[in-house]
Design a protein that fits this description.
six-stranded antiparallel barrel; alpha+beta; 23% strand; globular; 6 helices; Elongation Factor Tu (Ef-tu), domain 3; 39% helix
Length: 245
């Protein structure tokens, strides 16, 4: 009887050892996992090193609006100015531009209360300077007359745009963009006051080599309605002389 109790006690002790062993192993796995988590958190994160040059890092970003403003200052829109100049009568003989007189000019103040006051003072002065430059160009050596072959006529930006071709334009009498020319029906545009004529601005040029030396030119002008309807039809022939650049 006593031996049987010893066997039961031994079996019970063995079961407890097994349970204890299982619990220890389970607790050991959890402890291992916890230790791994703790060790992972304890590892410091690597610092990222920026390889860009330091001078680039210190440069502030340029706002897009500032870039547009700078471009507008470098290349302002001169269409309103050209609109007034191209309306001028080339053969007008006066110290003041056509449509202006001494009454349009005033003393330059030191300060201005508004933009309108500034414009009222300086716009006539700007036009006067342009008119004096044009008169001086008229008195210089005359430019050769160039024959214009009108391909088509259209409207662009409140101007009349003429698509023309010029044959045999050499380097001596070559036109450039923004040149001011006198367009006329006469073969002698600089001396034919009574022939239909108008001032024009060279808008663009494109040289083509199609057998002959031909240059495609876009002219922008503001002719009278009569000249536009009667003398600026597709296929017409006109003549022009460069006045100034």
């Amino acid at each position: 009887m006593e031996s049987r109790k010893k066997e039961q006690a031994a079996i019970h002790s063995s079961d407890e050892d097994d349970d204890s062993s299982d619990n220890d192993s389970g607790n050991g796995l959890f402890r291992l996992g916890n230790s791994v988590q703790r060790s992972t958190k304890s590892v410091p994160e690597p610092k990222l090193i920026d390889s860009r040059p330091k001078n680039l890092l210190r440069q502030p970003a340029v706002p897009t609006r500032r870039v547009k403003d700078n471009r507008a200052r470098v290349a302002p829109d001169l269409s309103p100015l050209y609109k007034q100049i191209l309306k001028w009568e080339f053969f007008h003989d006066d110290v003041f531009p056509p449509g202006l007189s001494a009454a349009n000019y005033s003393k330059v103040d030191r300060t201005f209360s508004s933009y309108a006051a500034y414009k009222k003072t300086f716009e006539p002065l700007l036009l006067l300077e342009a008119w004096q430059a044009l008169k001086q160009a008229k008195e210089e050596a005359p430019q050769p007359t160039i024959k214009l072959n009108l391909v088509t006529r259209m409207s662009a930006d409140n101007f009349v745009e003429l698509e023309i071709t010029i044959d045999g334009m050499n380097d001596r009498n070559r036109w450039l963009e923004s040149d001011l020319v006198l367009v006329s029906v006469s073969k002698q545009p600089l001396t034919s006051k009574d022939s239909p004529h108008c001032l024009a601005r060279v808008h663009s040029l494109k040289k083509k080599f199609t057998g002959a030396n031909t240059t495609e030119v876009q002219l922008r002008c503001d002719p009278s309605p009569q000249m536009m309807q009667e003398n600026m039809r597709n296929g017409s022939t006109l003549y022009a002389a460069k006045i100034m650049g």
